[in-house]
Structures are given as C-alpha cells and as structure tokens.
Amino acid sequence: MKAEYKKRFLGSYMMKNRVQVYIDRSSHECMKRFLSIAAPDTSMAGYVSRIIKDHIAENATTINKIFEDSKTKLF
Q1: Contact 44, 31 (CB under 8 A)
Q2: How far apart are CA 63 and CA 31, in angstroms?
C-alpha cells in the first residue's frame, strides 16, 4: 500500500501549461510537511495535480452525471 501510494503520487511529474489555484493554508502546511519528509524531490504542484487527476478518474461517472444533470436544468 505504501509503495503503491509513493508510485502513484510521489514520483517526478512534469508540469506543462500550469495555472494558479488557491488552497487553504492548513492543507498547504500539511502537504508541505509531508513532502519535505516523504518525498523532498516531489513538487507541491506535482503532488496536488496527481491528487486531482486521481480524484477525477475515480469519480468520472459521478462528475459527468452531475454535469449532465446541471446542464439540462439550465434550459
């Protein structure tokens, strides 16, 4: 489980076409502390991007359903 997490979220990650987003300070501090110990070579941006991509992939069906339901209710 630990090895799977490291492979999934903590390896190097090439970032292209980046945009800025904001997160709450407590989440940032938690991730900063974690990465400094567990994966000092992993960037915060890469870690957050992988978490978001994973969330979207795991919830794609539900996300698409919410989007479709919302889209049809607009008209």
Answers
A1: yes
A2: 25
